[in-house]
Amino acid sequence: MNDCPIASQDSLTVQGRERTLTLVVPKNLPPDPPLVILFHGSQQSSRVFRKFTAGTFDDAAARTGSVLAYVDGFDRHFNDSRVGADFRCRELGIDDVAFTAATIKRLRRTHGIDESKVFVVGYSNGGHMVIRLIHEAPKLLAGAAIIAATQPTPDNFLLAGRLPTLPRPVRLLAVHGTEDQLAPYKGGQASLWGKQSRGAVLSAPDSARYFAERNGIHTPPTETQWHEDVVVTEWAGQGLEPVQLWTVHGMGHVVPVPHDLPASLGPGTRAFAAADVITGFFGLSEV
User: Fold this and answer.
1) Are the CB atoms for 63 and 285 separated by under 8 Å?
2) Which residues, 6 or more positions from 22, have their beta carbon under 8 angstroms from its beta carbon?
3) Residue ranges of the chain with pLDDT lower than 70?
4) What global pTM score does this model have?
5) Exposed, middle or buried by CB within 10 Å (0-12, 13-18, 19+), for 25?
6) Per-residue pLDDT tens for 190-220?
7) How many C-alpha atoms does 147 have within 13 Å on its Cβ side?
8) Which of 95, 83, 104, 82 has the alpha carbon at shortest distance from 150?
9) Which helix (H) or strand (E) covers residue 279, if one does?
10) What is the C-alpha to C-alpha distance for residues 46 and 145, in angstroms, rounded to an integer?
């Protein structure tokens, strides 16, 4: 197992603007390591999100010999998949897809990452950025995970009518709490506690089903009671990229981690750490 990973700040220029990120690299980096890119939520930053997730992704990086890139949104937001995301990055046309591609290219050069093993994880606004990447740049991704975010409805989907007829499948794991008051589990208007609507979104189950069908899976899912408060629904088929939905009963708008989070976001859970589940789903084994 690697020792504790080393964190550092990095920057690169995209569209003539300096973009920043926090890098976390195992001390004993193996050849051709995987890369996991993490996208924070609204009003957060790479440093805040690293603290928000209690270092659990850092621990996973140490176990699996992966490079982590916690990227910073412009003005603390990403230009995501929703029409209703009226952030300043949208007004300015910030290209976070290009930022993601540039990050991958940079880390291939500086850390020798394996470009066939690039995974993305996003929470809230960052989750919607991951949704945009799945649709707009799937060739960059070996797998994706979204937390507290679901597919926008067609009228709220920024890329509606601009997608290829035959989509490129991407394996996906989604985590969502049934008591999420910002990104409602049952779908409807996503907002900040009823204010500043971000437009309509699908329910968490319908969103997962959408991605399963996008991956070519049309058979009914299987359902497992993983924990008394956690149900795992999986869509799978031979030779097809799977989709999993981890439904956490009673959880709010948070990332599952083994510590307390701001009460304003709703209850958390200690049933599992999202980083561990996501790492396993990506197939990143210990080194």
Assistant:
1) no
2) 7, 8, 9, 10, 46, 47, 50, 69, 70, 72
3) 1-3
4) 0.96
5) buried
6) 988 777 789 999 999 999 999 999 999 999 9
7) 25
8) 82
9) helix 274-282
10) 17
